Amino acid sequence: MQKAIVVHYFNDKKNNLIELNQLLQEGWKVVSQSAMSGGEAGGIVYSLVILEKN
């Protein structure tokens, strides 16, 4: 099974890294990662992460 999530990071309080880390702890593995355009001003970083779990 695969799942895709968009990881976003602005600063230590505005991000969804907890969601990614939780999935990794549950046994999901990163298959691929691709940087995405951060269309907003202010330095937000986006990344498409494809995860897989058997």
Order of helices and strands: EHEE
Return the average pLDDT rounded to an integer: 90
Structure class: alpha+beta
Largest sheet, in brief, is:
3 strands, antiparallel
Give the number of helices.
1
| Residue runs with pLDDT of under 50 for 5 or more positions | none
Instruction: Give the end-to-end Cα distance, rounded to a whole number of Å.
Output: 6 Å
Order the strands across the largest sheet as they lie in space: 1-3-2
Protein name: DUF4177 domain-containing protein
Report on the structure:
The structure is a single chain. This protein has one helix at residues 17-25, and strands at residues 2-9, 29-36, 45-52. A 3-stranded antiparallel β-sheet has the order 1-3-2, covered by helices on one side. A hairpin with an 8-residue loop joins β2 and β3. It is built from 1 helix and 3 strands; from the N terminus they run βαββ. 17% of the residues lie in helices and 44% in strands. The mean pLDDT is 90. The termini are close together. By secondary structure, it is α+β, with helices and mostly antiparallel strands. The radius of gyration is 12 Å and the shape is flat.
